């Protein structure tokens, strides 16, 4: 614990005080942590490389294609059109709540990373057009994405926990909804009222000059193209439940439902609907795509650095040592599951790793203590969202996209995640009184 604390403090100081590039800071801290935690000298760099490869392997295609799609949505005027339709529907006064609802609906079928990249252009289009505070408008929508990622199947961590605890997927989803909605409201729009004055100049790649109304794509084309990844994922996710028995068809739909393929299909469609159909040629679109990748290159490096740090801590076995030492504490199983997940999350940065590790520790308690398995899934899911900070790729996504200082990212993102986690635990304990 002392080594982890030292490394986290060192990382914060290198980035905030020494002004070192975050990627370089992650590399230095990861190597230092590996050596201090007893990983053999000849295997430290292998752990760093594995961590970088593991996290980029799952996110590189999604983030790059999402950035290209976001750039196109912004520069084509589609984001401007979507913002106009939303504001006309609910009024500027309630635009924040409209974005929260959109984020929640999109967050249910969409992986967090895709949802984040997909919704950022929409957030920024509202911010630029109506000159609203970026964090105040954007954080509630991001909160809704985060809550669905941690609480609700079919996201990877809660889905895996349902299987591990022999819980019921539908029941867990219903309980999760009951907890998720108040968590989003309290940690989103209500908490964001305290963040109006945070200075933020969002990432320029998603900023587009306001276009005249007659040059904008139609509302249908704008919404359809921007939300196509969501529609494709929902379609492919529902396909197995339509009674189709043909194995070839199921394999094809599984292939088409892969997030990378979904984003590729969405970008190809957008290239036509928001590019060629709007009178732009492939050379112009190619420049936009190159610019989009340039703009997110530092974000990719920072995320890869956080993956290296997480892998070093995991390879050292420190996550299991922390969890086993906490198992001896005498506390209610639902609270214990939350505490173990929260501490591993704070130490390692990965919500998925925290959730699955905590599940392995408390699995026997679910049976011996007659704990409701659906509530244990949600308790651990809430704990796995606790206090995201510098070792979490989500922290850096939010910081870099919204162009915030470390201090303001702690004030906004980290506090929002902590509120979601605590409110989630409170909701679980309240439900436990009635179910």
Automatic annotation (TrEMBL):
<keyword id="KW-0812">Transmembrane</keyword>
<dbReference type="Pfam" id="PF02447">
    <property type="entry name" value="GntP_permease"/>
</dbReference>
<feature type="transmembrane region" description="Helical">
    <location>
        <begin position="132"/>
        <end position="152"/>
    </location>
</feature>
<feature type="transmembrane region" description="Helical">
    <location>
        <begin position="375"/>
        <end position="398"/>
    </location>
</feature>
<feature type="transmembrane region" description="Helical">
    <location>
        <begin position="94"/>
        <end position="120"/>
    </location>
</feature>
<feature type="transmembrane region" description="Helical">
    <location>
        <begin position="55"/>
        <end position="74"/>
    </location>
</feature>
<keyword id="KW-0472">Membrane</keyword>
<protein>
    <submittedName>
        <fullName>Gnt-I system high-affinity gluconate transporter</fullName>
    </submittedName>
</protein>
<feature type="transmembrane region" description="Helical">
    <location>
        <begin position="418"/>
        <end position="434"/>
    </location>
</feature>
<feature type="transmembrane region" description="Helical">
    <location>
        <begin position="335"/>
        <end position="368"/>
    </location>
</feature>
<comment type="similarity">
    <text>Belongs to the GntP permease family.</text>
</comment>
<feature type="transmembrane region" description="Helical">
    <location>
        <begin position="296"/>
        <end position="315"/>
    </location>
</feature>
<feature type="transmembrane region" description="Helical">
    <location>
        <begin position="216"/>
        <end position="240"/>
    </location>
</feature>
<feature type="transmembrane region" description="Helical">
    <location>
        <begin position="28"/>
        <end position="48"/>
    </location>
</feature>
<dbReference type="InterPro" id="IPR003474">
    <property type="entry name" value="Glcn_transporter"/>
</dbReference>
<feature type="transmembrane region" description="Helical">
    <location>
        <begin position="172"/>
        <end position="195"/>
    </location>
</feature>
<keyword id="KW-1133">Transmembrane helix</keyword>
<feature type="transmembrane region" description="Helical">
    <location>
        <begin position="252"/>
        <end position="275"/>
    </location>
</feature>
<keyword id="KW-0813">Transport</keyword>
<keyword id="KW-1003">Cell membrane</keyword>
């Amino acid at each position: 614990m002392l080594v982890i604390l030292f490394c986290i403090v060192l990382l914060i100081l290198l980035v905030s005080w020494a002004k070192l590039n975050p990627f370089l800071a992650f590399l230095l801290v990861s190597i230092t942590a590996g050596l201090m935690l007893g990983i053999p000298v000849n295997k430290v760099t292998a752990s760093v490389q594995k961590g970088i490869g593991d996290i980029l392997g799952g996110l590189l295609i999604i983030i790059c294609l999402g950035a290209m799609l976001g750039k196109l949505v912004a520069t084509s005027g589609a984001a401007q059109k979507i913002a106009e339709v939303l504001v006309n529907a609910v009024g500027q006064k309630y635009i924040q709540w409209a974005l929260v609802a959109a984020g929640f609906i999109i967050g249910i079928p969409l992986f967090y990373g895709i949802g984040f990249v997909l919704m950022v252009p929409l957030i920024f289009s509202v911010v630029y057009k109506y000159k609203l505070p970026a964090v105040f408008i954007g954080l509630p929508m991001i909160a809704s994405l985060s809550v669905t990622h941690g609480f609700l199947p079919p996201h990877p961590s809660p889905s895996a926990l349902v299987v591990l605890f022999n819980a019921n997927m539908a029941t867990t989803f219903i309980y999760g909804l009951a907890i998720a909605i108040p968590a989003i409201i309290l940690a989103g729009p209500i908490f964001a009222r305290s963040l109006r004055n945070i200075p933020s100049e969002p990432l320029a790649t998603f900023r587009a000059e306001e276009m005249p109304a007659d040059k904008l794509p139609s509302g249908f084309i704008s919404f359809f193209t921007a939300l196509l990844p969501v529609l494709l994922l929902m379609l492919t996710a529902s396909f197995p439940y339509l009674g189709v028995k043909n194995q070839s068809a199921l394999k094809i739909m599984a292939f088409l439902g892969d997030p990378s393929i979904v984003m590729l299909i969405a970008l190809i469609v957008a290239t036509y609907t928001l590019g060629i159909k709007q009178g732009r040629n492939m050379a112009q679109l190619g420049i936009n795509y190159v610019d989009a990748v340039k703009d997110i290159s530092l974000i990719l490096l920072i995320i890869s650095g956080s993956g290296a740090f997480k892998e070093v801590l995991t390879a050292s076995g420190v996550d299991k040592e922390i969890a086993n030492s906490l198992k001896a504490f005498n506390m209610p199983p639902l609270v214990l599951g939350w505490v173990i997940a929260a501490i591993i999350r704070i130490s390692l940065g990965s919500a998925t790793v925290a959730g699955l590790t905590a599940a392995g520790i408390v699995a026997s308690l679910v049976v011996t203590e007659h704990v409701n398995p659906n509530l244990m899934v949600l308790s651990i899911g809430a704990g796995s969202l606790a206090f995201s900070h510098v070792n979490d790729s989500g922290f850096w996504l939010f910081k870099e996209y919204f162009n915030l200082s470390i201090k303001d990212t702690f004030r906004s993102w980290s506090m929002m995640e902590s509120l979601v986690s605590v409110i989630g635990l409170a909701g679980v304990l309240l439900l436990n009184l009635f179910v």
